[in-house]
């Protein structure tokens, strides 16, 4: 068996430099072409402050000097993870059809996390096109506040039976804390990574073909 050394590898590459350069050039062209299959995506973000009501004791009686966030931002995150939670209008505003696959794709485009000490949730949606992502974020913000207020009102209705003659001193609805913000530039795809990745894959595959052909010629005595 012939020992593979660095010098032999260099000699092999030099004797096939034309083929390797052609592979590199072809790989870059293929990588640039591959970019057309990855639409530019923009991010839209907003912050939702969750509803606030008075806290209650173990017997569900109002504590005038204490507050609670109902529901918590975690519940909003769970809401955005349910494909069936969105109205048909919201799905269409985000540029999708009202199908199970598109609803799941919408869920995959949304990211949310708790912020401001558990009193709010930051929501980010990533989609192709500035106008589309803005329309989607607008619809999602309305869906978020409607869901949060609905959950708060259901909680209040439940607690009312324990406090029939007590007024709620604190009863704040959900609200959007800041205006929806859109990224100035596309956040994906990463053009350099795609071009280099495709180019490297083609170069490595080409080298494998060249090596295989060289070995085949030796076996056949060509």
- The percent range for helix content is 40-55%
What's the total number of strands? 8
Q: What is the succession of H and E elements?
A: HHEEEHHHEEHEEEH
Q: Give the termini distance in whole angstroms.
A: 19 Å
Mean pLDDT: 84
The CATH class of the largest domain turns out to be Alpha Beta
How many structurally independent domains? 2
The major pleated sheet works out as: 5 strands, antiparallel
**What share of the residues does DSSP label as strand, in percent?**
15-25%
CATH topology of the largest domain: Alpha-Beta Plaits
Uncertain runs? none
CATH architecture of the largest domain: 2-Layer Sandwich
Taken from the alpha-carbon principal axes, the silhouette is: elongated
**Helix/sheet category:** alpha+beta
In DSSP terms, counting alpha (H) and pi (I) runs of 4 or more, how many helices? 7
Radius of gyration, in angstroms, nearest whole number? 29 Å
Provide an overview of this structure.
- The protein is α+β, with helices and mostly antiparallel strands and 222 residues long.
- It has seven helices and eight strands, in the order H-H-E-E-E-H-H-H-E-E-H-E-E-E-H.
- Helices cover 50% and strands 19% of the residues.
- The strands form two sheets. Strands 1, 4, 5, 7 and 8 form a five-stranded antiparallel β-sheet that branches. It has a three-stranded antiparallel β-sheet with strand order 3-2-6, with no helix packed on it.
- The chain is elongated, with a radius of gyration of 29 Å.
């Amino acid at each position: 068996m012939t020992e593979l050394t660095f010098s032999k590898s260099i000699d092999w590459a030099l004797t096939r430099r034309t083929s390797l350069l052609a592979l590199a050039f072809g790989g870059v062209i293929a990588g640039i072409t591959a970019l057309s299959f990855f639409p530019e995506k923009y991010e839209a973000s907003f912050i939702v402050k969750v509803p606030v009501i008075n806290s209650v004791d173990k017997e569900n009686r109002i504590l005038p000097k204490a507050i609670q966030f109902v529901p918590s931002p975690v519940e909003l995150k769970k809401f955005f993870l349910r494909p069936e939670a969105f109205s048909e209008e919201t799905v269409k505003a985000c540029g999708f059809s009202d199908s199970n696959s598109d609803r799941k794709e919408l869920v995959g485009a949304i990211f949310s996390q708790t912020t401001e000490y558990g009193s709010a949730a930051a929501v980010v949606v990533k989609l192709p096109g500035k106008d589309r992502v803005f329309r989607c974020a607008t619809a999602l913000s309305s869906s978020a506040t409607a869901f949060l207020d609905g959950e708060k009102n259901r909680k209040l209705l439940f607690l009312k039976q324990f406090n029939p003659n007590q007024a709620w001193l604190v009863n704040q609805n959900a609200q959007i804390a800041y205006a929806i913000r859109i990224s100035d530039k596309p956040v994906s795809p990463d053009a350099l990574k795609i071009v280099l990745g495709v180019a490297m894959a083609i170069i490595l595959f080409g080298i494998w073909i060249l090596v295989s052909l060289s070995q085949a010629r030796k076996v056949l005595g060509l």
